[in-house]
Each structure stands twice: as C-alpha cells, then as structure tokens.
Design brief:
Elements (H helix, E strand, L loop, with lengths): L25 H13 L4 E5 L6 H13 L7 E5 L6 H13 L9 E6 L6 H13 L4 E7 L7 H5 L1 E5 L5 H15 L5 H11 L3 H12 L6 H8 L4 H12 L3 H15 L3 H12 L8 H19 L4 H22 L1
Parallel strand pairs: 1-4, 1-5, 2-3, 3-4
C-alpha cells in the first residue's frame, strides 16, 4: 500500500479542483459557472447531507475565480470550532477590510458548518454581510438550513446538494483504486456505497480502511465498518419466524461478539433488512416487525439492557411466527 493512501480522506490529490470535475450536481455547477463568467455573485448558502460536495464546490468556485493562488483571497473558517461572536468580530471583520484581488471585485469568506454558530454570532455575521457586501462575499455551508437564522437565509442564494448517485460514487472509488494499485471487487465497492449512503467522504474513508486488509470485498467492508453482513441479520429473523428461538438467539449473540455490535447497531440493521426484498415475508409481517423494532429501539435509547431487549425481540418474532403458522 502506497503512502499516499493514508491521505485518501479528501486529500488534495483526489479532491476536484475545478467546477468541471464535480459530478452529480450538474444544476448547481452550471449556476456557479455563471458566477465565474460574470465575475460576480451573491452570498451563497450550501445545504445538504454530509459528503455531497458542498465544501469542495466552494473551493472549486474560488479556484475558478482566482486561479491556483485562490487561498490568498478566501478566508476559511470551521464554524463548529470558531463559532463565537468574537471570531466574527475579529477574523472575519479584518479579512473583509483587506484589499481585494486585482481582477475580481470581491473576496470570499467560507464558513463551514455554519449551522453550529451561536445565535449571537449569526446576528453579528448578518450585520457584516450588510456592511462589506461591496468587497466580500460569504459562502455558508450547513447540513441543517433551519438552524440558520432567517435574516441570513434571505440574504443568500440557496444551493441544495443531493446525495451522490451510485454510479458516480463507484466510478470515483474505482478511479482511486486504479491510481493506487489497489485490488477490489465490484461487489465490494457497491457495498461501500450502500454503507456510506451517498456520502463520498465516508466512502473514501471506508475504502482506505478496507484496502489495508487486502482486496476490497463485501466481507472486508462490513468488517471494517463494524457491521454484520446483511444475510446474517436476515438469517436471525428467518430462524426466529420459523420457531428456532435458541438457534436465532445464539446466532445473534455470535454476531454481537464477532462484530462488536451494540444493541442499537443491531436494531438499526434489523430495521434495514426488514425492507430488503431478499427477506421473503409478506408485507403485513414487515409492518408488524417494523412497529415492534421501533419499540425496542426506544427502550434501548432510554437505557434498557441490550441483551434482554434483543432476546425479547427474538422471542416476539418466534411467537409471531407461531401465530402465522397456526392461522394457516
């Protein structure tokens, strides 16, 4: 494994440097390109799930505006770390007062995770956006736009990022593997996509961890993320419904021990597999199991014992299976 693999997590080598390299967000990219052509733009608010390219798009926009040395004209702050009113009144204010680049009439202040800013800091930011709008543009990045105060939202053009498509994520992972000379299977990359749920940053991180153990296969992926293989979870559900309570219980205990799962982890995986087409049960049974899964999850969150609650869940499935067989 090359030393560069240690930097896979959004390393500069693999991060898109221009808007032309960003995929899956075509409408957003086209709108941003118009700002580059016009050399002018409003304040921007990027919202969407983690790992969908919000920060990357902001850097790519700045790169296309200012060139290779774009960092001279962009102040980047992570608002979750520097979210107080003092930061807004000092760093941002001083940067907004400094000189502008020669060809572009404004600089950029990038506030990542802006939804973690305090209410006072957001009010201070609102005032700065008014005072320095002539020579400074603000790009705010947030996972939850509802946490951004309304006066700031009304001053920004909204860009909503969506989770990445399966084909785009797998294509990027394949490209990274080929660049690094890593061995992989398509099934392994597909599993990474399913686990990451469209989060490219998480997908690359999982890939890095999986490659360290050898060829990227589904088994390796589930091992590095600390999840049981879905077919093993389905086997537990099937055994219980067939009346094999002790076998289902032993199978579940072995999964918890082998994979180091918590009760909540198990319930989340069970919930996911309830709706899998590979689990051959009638829809009305899926509804009943989903309803009781929510009850077990609530008990676990409230502090109930993992093993007792999971055993109760397996027992409930077993009794449900008995009632179904008796009604036939």
């Amino acid at each position: 494994m090359s030393s560069e693999l240690a930097e896979l997590l959004w390393a500069e080598k693999y991060r898109p440097k221009s808007l032309d390299e960003i995929v899956n967000q075509e409408e957003i990219v086209n709108r941003l390109k118009k700002f580059v052509e016009e050399k002018n733009m409003p304040h921007l608010l990027f919202v969407g799930p983690p790992g969908t390219g919000k920060t990357t798009a902001a850097h790519a926009l700045a790169h296309d505006l200012y060139g290779e040395n774009y960092r001279q004209y962009m102040l980047e702050l992570n608002a979750s770390d520097e979210r107080g009113i003092d930061t807004i009144r000092t760093k941002v204010k001083e940067f907004a007062r400094s000189r502008t680049p020669p060809e572009i009439p404004f600089k950029i202040v990038l506030l990542d995770e802006a939804d973690n800013m305090t209410a006072d800091a957001q009010q201070a930011l609102r005032r700065l956006m008014e005072m320095y709008t002539a020579n400074t543009r603000f790009i705010l990045i947030a996972n939850f736009p509802s946490k951004i105060i309304e006066p700031i939202q009304s001053r920004c053009a909204l860009f909503r990022f969506t989770p990445l498509k399966k084909d785009d994520v797998i294509a990027r992972l394949k490209w990274i593997c080929e660049q690094e000379g890593c061995k992989y299977t398509i099934e392994g990359l597909e599993t990474i996509y399913e686990v990451s749920e469209g989060d490219m940053r998480k997908a690359i991180n999982i890939l890095q961890a999986a490659v360290a153990l050898g060829t990227v296969t589904p088994e390796i992926v589930y091992k590095v993320v600390g999840l049981a293989h879905p077919k093993e979870i389905r086997e537990v559900i099937t055994l219980a419904l067939e009346g094999e309570f002790m076998r289902a219980r032993e199978k579940l205990r072995s999964l918890i021990i082998n994979y180091g799962l918590s009760g909540t982890d198990v319930v989340k995986q069970i919930h996911r597999e309830i709706f899998s087409p590979e689990l051959k049960i009638p829809d009305e049974i899926r509804v009943l199991i989903a309803d009781y899964t929510g009850e077990i999850q609530y008990r676990l969150v409230e502090g109930a014992d993992d093993e007792i609650q999971l055993n109760a869940f397996i027992a409930w499935l077993t009794m449900l299976g008995q009632k179904l067989r008796a009604s036939r």
